[in-house]
Amino acid sequence: MTTYTWTAPTRRGFLFASAGLAGLGAVFATDGARACDKHPGPGAPSEGRIAGPDEPGEPMEIEGTVYRPDGVTPAAGVVLYAYHTGVDGLYAATPGPPRLRAWFRTDPRGRYAYRTIRPAAYPERRFAAHVHTQLWSDTVPAQWGTDLLFADDPLLSAGQRRESEALARFANIRPLVRGPGGVWRGVHDLRLKTTGDHFEDNTRHGLQG
């Protein structure tokens, strides 16, 4: 299995291109990328955990629906790979894939849900805390989904808020509501693109296991 050396992403990782959001789905994954049998992508559940129950941090539950590029039709059977930092703001203490990550597969209604902890911003606090998402299937090209950002995060810029608002119902800056047991709860709907994205070597861990 490939070993990855982690570096903090650039601003590019937080800009979500709106071009190419309408139309029919494509059939080839970017760079020929496909989920391999080293990870549970093809057989992943629609609901599950990213962080275990003993993980330090405030518990958080996120649910959502993945839609086809038309923004209306739920996308069933799409692999959603999500990962984020721990309370220390790091993905991992040593080189390698992120420690807090998981694969899910949307149900017949395009839905998914996961439980984890609320991530922290990177130690240098240049970027707001976030959850990265990647999506693909046999008929959906491997692509970045919008990063989940949190409405109450003081590190969010005015520009990020405008970009999120422009996505309308697919806005990626989401409010969280604290429920019983102190669990933060939120919704993050995702809209597939017709085209795939290029993944740098240190961001291909979802596809490669």
Can you describe this structure in just a few lines?
By secondary structure, this protein is mainly beta. Helix content is 6%, strand content 24%.
**DSSP strand count:** 12
| Count of structural domains | 1
Question: CATH homologous superfamily, by name?
Answer: Aromatic compound dioxygenase
CATH topology: Protocatechuate 3,4-Dioxygenase, subunit A
How would you state the average pLDDT, rounded?
84
Shape: globular
**Number of separate helices:** 2
Q: According to CATH, what is the class?
A: Mainly Beta
Structure class:
mainly beta
CATH architecture: Sandwich
Q: From the alpha carbons, calculate the radius of gyration and give it in angstroms.
A: 16 Å
Strand content: 15-25%
End-to-end Cα distance? 7 Å
- The proportion of residues forming helix, as a percent range, comes to under 10%
| Largest sheet composition | 6 strands, mixed
Low-pLDDT segments, ≥5 res: 1-38
GO molecular function, one term: iron ion binding
Protein name: Intradiol ring-cleavage dioxygenases domain-containing protein
Keywords: Signal
